[in-house]
Amino acid sequence: MQVLVVGGGDGGVLREIAKHDSVESIDICEIDQLVIDVCKDFFPRLYVGYKDPRVRLHVGDAVEFLRNSPEGKYDAIIVDSSDPIGPAQELVEKPFFQAIARALKPGGVLSNLAESMWLHTHLIQDMLSICREVFKGGVHYAWASVPTYPRCSTSLHHLF
């Protein structure tokens, strides 16, 4: 199994993927080297995934990385990106999902971080609409509530 992680610089998703022997290779594309460095120094239990020999780190823009990826390379793509505002806005737009669809093998799976269903319903509806158009097959939506998220990085007052 070939897996791509988009974002996920903290290493948490990477650590969990690396637990599975069926995974042959893991590419991770993180735009911010500083995120990786800080996690290495301060969150070693998350960073441990980077030490797996199956991991190939690519520091740079995920949209560009996907455009340059071979067609049908990945069995699974997991998007663990920043909030979809500012530069990350393109990670919730149609060209990004088209690039993902091209990079996935037939029958491949996408798991995408999609904000809070309670606070960002419009964003989720837009993403689902785009995915239904781009992927043409079954698009399933599932959610979990994470108390320290959504957008806590830009609006901590939601937590208190």
Q: What is the total domain count?
A: 1
SS summary, helix count: 6
Give me the secondary-structure category: alpha/beta
Global shape: globular
As residue ranges, the low-confidence spans are: 156-160
CATH architectural name: 3-Layer(aba) Sandwich
Mean pLDDT: 85
Query: Largest sheet, described in full?
Result: 5 strands, parallel
Q: Tell me the CATH superfamily.
A: Vaccinia Virus protein VP39
Total E-strand runs: 5
Element pattern in H and E: EHEHHEHEHEH
First-last Cα distance = 42 Å
Helical amount among residues, as a percent range? 25-40%
List keywords for this structure.
160 residues; alpha/beta; Rossmann fold; five-stranded parallel β-sheet; 6 helices; 5 strands
Kindly summarize this structure in a few lines.
The chain has 160 residues and is an alpha/beta fold.
Description:
With 160 residues, the chain is α/β, with parallel strands linked by helices. It has one domain (2-159): Vaccinia Virus protein VP39 (Rossmann fold, 3-Layer(aba) Sandwich), CATH 3.40.50.150. It has helices at residues 12-17, 33-42, 44-47, 62-68, 94-103, 121-135, and strands at 2-7, 25-30, 55-59, 74-80, 104-112. It has a 5-stranded parallel sheet with strand order 3-2-1-4-5. Strand 4, helix 5 and strand 5 form a beta-alpha-beta unit. Helix 5 packs across helix 6 (121-135). The termini are far apart.
